[in-house]
Structure formats: C-alpha cells, structure tokens
Fold:
Amino acid sequence: MISSRYFSAVCLFSLVTPGQAADWPTYQHDYARSGVARESLLAPFTDGWVHRSRHAPRPAWRGEAKWDGYNKVYDLKSRQIFDYAYHPVIADGLLYYGSSADDKIYCLDAATGEQRWTFFTEGPVRLAPTIAEGRVFVGSDDGHAYCLEAKSGTLVWKTQLGPRDYRIPGNSRIISRWPLRTGIVIIDDLAYCAAGMFPSEGVLITAIEADTGKIKWQQKQTDLPAQGYMLASHTRLYVPAGRNNPVVLNRADGKRIRVVSGQGGTYALLTGDNLVFGPGKTGTLGFVESNQSDQLATFKGNHMIVTPSRSFLQSDTDLSALDRSRYLDLARKRRPLKSRLGKLQDELKKVKAGERQRQILKDAGKLGKQLDEVQSAMQECFAWRVPSSQPLSIVLAGQTLITGGHNEVAAYSAKDGSQLWQARADGEVFGLAVADGRLYASTSKGVIHCFVARRLGE
Structure:
C-alpha cells in the first residue's frame, strides 16, 4: 500500500529546523501546491551544479493573445504555463523531471547532477512526476499513467486512461486524444489524475490502484478540459481547467461538487479547503472559501504563499506580506455592504425624483462611506511591500522567500522583505524546489541550477 506520509503537508505548515533535510516529492512540495518546504534555507547560497537538457521545453500553449478586444483588456497574462520549465521533484537523494521535448523521464543525483537513468514514454511529459514509497508516478501526452521504480527506472505498470489508444496531431506533436495533463496525486493506495483536453470527447477523472495500475473508478466531464496540476484535500479533488475555472470534486468517487467563479488559469493552491487560483487575464488571484462558488476576495498578483500567520504575494513588480486573517475578515464585512449598495443603485435607476429617491441616495452615501472605510482597512493589512523583479515563481523555506524571474533567482527575508541574495540563471525561472539544504531552479531553456544553502555557523 502507498503511504499518505506526504499528504499531511496539505493542511499543515510546520517547518523543521535548519540542518534537518526533507524531500520535495511533488510539484510545489505537496498536494496543496503550497510551495512551503519542510526545512529552512539560509542565504546566501553558493553554486552547486548545473544540468543542461539537450532540448528546451516545448510548451503546449505559447501564451495568450496580446489583447482581448471584445472586453478591452490589454497585456493579457498567460494562463497555461504549467509546462514552461522542467519542474524537478526530489526524494531520497535523487532528482526527477519529465521532458516535453524528448518524451523522457530523467533521474539525476540530487547532490552532483549526474544522470542515473532515463525512461521513454510515447509522448511529451508536461508535468512533474510524483514520488511515493520508492516509486515514480508520471503522466504523458500519450494518454498513459506510468509507475516506475524510483532507483532504477524499471516499469512497474502502465495504464491507459482513455477508452482506446487513439493518436491525433496536437500542440505540434502526435498525442493521445486523452492526454494526461494534471500530474498524479498519490493518497493511501490510490493514484488520482485526469486525462483529456477536448470536452466533446470526454475528460476522464480517474482513480487508479497505486500498487497494480488497475482503474478503480472514472468520472466523465463533457464541459471543461483538465490542464494544470491537480490538488487534493482530505475529502476533495481540485482540477484546473486550463483557461477556465477549477472544478471541485468529491475525492471518494470523483463526482462533481461545483465549478468556482473567477478569471481562469492553471495556477492554484489550497489552504484547507479554501482555494486560491489565477492568474486570470490580468494577474489576479481569486480566493474562494470552502463550500462556496463565488470569490470572497481577489489579490493583485501572480502567485501566493500561505502560512498560518501570513500570506506572501508575488506580482510583476513587487513582493508583499499580508495579514491574511484580518484581510479576509474585512472582505467578509465588505461583501454584504457591496451587495446592499448594488441593490440600492439598481433601485435608483427605476424610481422617479421624490422622497424615495432622496432616501436611496442618503442610504447609498452611508453604505459608500462604510465601504470606503473597510477597503482602506484592507490596505492596512499589508505588513510590508518591497520592489521585486522576479515575478515567475516563489517558494518558502523557513524564513527565506525564494523567487524566480527573468534570468535570475533571489532570496528575501520573510520577516521584513529585505533582499538576502541574488544570482543569475540561464533562462526564465519558472520552477523552484527545495531539498536537503539545496535550492533547485529550473528554467525555460531546460536548465536546472543547483544552489547550496549556507549552514548554521558559517
């Protein structure tokens, strides 16, 4: 049976002390996609090794149009960037990544960068593998989920998710009609994933027996694709839907609970059963509470790190720390004020000049003042904000925030935002991982940089 020892990180953010090592067994560390390491890294970092893949990533989608003329939205964000770099995962001293260019899974020595083994699939591998109990679980555009022995790369099982092995031209490659583009989540004895990006053909939410590769159940959805890293809480699965909004499912049987509202995107993380996702068309993260469909709050930014006391926001121009609990309490107060004000404004359009109109204007003025006070208080919830030129990725290791940007990677103090370190990288740093006292930065050129953290006393 596959253990759930990595699943506890979905809801817990406890950190071990510096010097204690921990793995990074799946994308963004855990199935909440928190980006929070279970160890502290101390800056500055020193150079370790550099791995250069023979081929740069070949993303499925090359980005948004420059503008949305119908809605008059300019400088659109790319909402499907899950495969812009080879995201590494690390366990038991080995580093693994999948290639969208040569259709392989690679295993390297995490300390030296030396290649240990490779394994061919029959299509692009666009999302990072997941490591559990000495095995590598990974999906491919060939429509199959794979399970390999982690130390040797030997195939344990291979399972086709679609109803048949049917190949078509897609994203300039030959792929399955049901490509697997959600990553694989391993909890207890089940592997969860989804296959399909053409709703008309059926998108298959699937649970597989992790030991045998046999399909336990499948649910078909016919209105939304499945693209982006799947997330999981104790009772639910969350499936990003490319440019569309995420789908919330019951983990026990895959039945749909709801689709949340927002502006779409493949970036998402969980805090408990609360969902943060985006970046939408303009770089906005929506916060949706458990059991709700509508957004409670939005944040200007590309990515977020959530801890029990603070949230850290990464935007195109800055990095900031937010008292999230107070901010959300104020957002809850703001919601009924906005609703009441909206109803008064609608009523005002329908009434004629007279006593009722004067009363509406008076009430609307009071509500507007209260709303301004709440929104002003929300802005005071930011503990600090500093300029930052690294907008592409972020992780947290102890009290060190690490950010990836255009040909550079940097570290900041989580306490006050002061910059602690900066280094050059070959390409745009879309991927970051932390394990065994090391930082791994992966880029759009297929390069993985390894940096070594300072030890206590050095």
Observations:
- Confidence is low (pLDDT under 50) at residues 1-20.
- The chain is about 10% helix and 40% strand.
